[in-house]
Amino acid sequence: xxxxxxxxxxxxxxxxxxxxxxxxxxxxxGAGEGGSCEFSVARGSELxxxxxxxPTPAHRHGVLSEDGFYKVAVNDSILWFQLCDEMLxxxxxxxxxxxxxxxxxxxxxxxxxxxxxxxxxxxxxxTTIGGLSKSHISLVDEGNPRKGIIVKxxxxxxSISVSVICDSNAIQVPDKFVLSGLCDYATxxxxxxxxxxxxxxxxxxxxxxxxxxxxxxILSCIQSCESGxxxxxxxxxxxKKLSLxxxxxxxxxxxxxxxxxxxxLQILFxxxxxxxxxxxxxxxxxxxxxx
Length: 291
Description:
It is a single chain. By secondary structure, this protein is an alpha+beta fold. It folds into 2 domains: about 30-200, Cation-dependent Mannose-6-phosphate Receptor, Chain A (Distorted Sandwich); about 225-290, no CATH class. It has helices at about 10-25, 205-225, 230-235, 270-275, and strands at about 30, 40-45, 45-50, 70-75, 75-80, 115-120, 125-130, 135-140, 150-155, 160-165, 175-180, 185-190, 195-200. Strands 8-9-10-12-11 form a 5-stranded mixed sheet, with no helix packed on it. The chain has a 4-stranded antiparallel sheet with strand order 1-2-3-13, with no helix packed on it. Strands 4-5-6-7 form a 4-stranded antiparallel sheet, with no helix packed on it. Strand 9 (about 150-155) and strand 10 form a beta hairpin. The longest helix is centred in the C-terminal third of the chain and has 19 residues, at about 205-225. The chain is elongated. The chain starts with 9 loop residues before the first helix and ends in a 16-residue tail after the last helix. Keywords: Signal.
C-alpha cells in the first residue's frame, strides 16, 4: 500500500476561512487602538471604506488640520482638537492652568488630541478630553454610510465626538460645539475625507468563497491520485520542463509550448513531496522533443 499523500497545509485552510469571512460581509474597522482613522463597513453588496488621514489632490493631509489643530470658541470656552494625530502648536498655543496631562505648562496641548479651556473664577482652566490612543469610529447614519462618520475620543473622565460629514466639494470647519453631561463635547466638520470609497461586492462575496472551495477540492483530489494512474498527477510531475526556447524544435513537437515551474507553489502545496516516487512520464513529456 502506498503511503498516504501529504496533507494540505494549514495556510490553505486559513485562506479558505478568510474568504468565507469576507464573503459574509463582516465589518472590518481600524478604529480601535493607536488612533487609527481607517474604517470599513459592508452594507448589502457594497463595501464602504474611510481613510481620514489619506492624502487627496486637494488635501495632502486628509482630514488633519494643516495648522496642527482645529479651534472652536463659544462664549468663555475654547475647544482645540486634531483628528488622527496629536495636536501641534506653532502659534497661538493654549494658555491655561491644569495642563499637566497634555504637555504641561510649557507645551500645553501637544500631548493629547483634544483639550478644552473654561473660565473658572477668572482663570482659564484646561481639561484634556481626548487622546490619540483612545478613539472609536462609527457611522453618522447606520442606514446611509455615505453621510459620514463619527470619530469619538476619550480621556479619563471626558470625551469629544467629531462628526465628519461628507462634502466632496468644500471644507466647513466647526464653529460651535455642544456640551452634554459634565464633560462630553460634540462638534461637526464637513470635509471630503468624510466621503467613503465604495467597492461593489456583487453576489455578496460568494465568488471568492466558491473559488477557494473549488481550489481546495481540486488539490484534495490531486493528492488522492495514485502514482501513474492520475492524469493530473502525470501533468504536474513531468520529468522534463518545456520552455519557449523549445518552440518548433523537432518534427513531433506541436506549435505551442508550456513552461510552468510548479515548485513555485510550494507555499500552498508540497509538490516535491507529491511527486516523490513518480517515475512515469508526465503528459508534458509526451510533447518534449527526443534527443
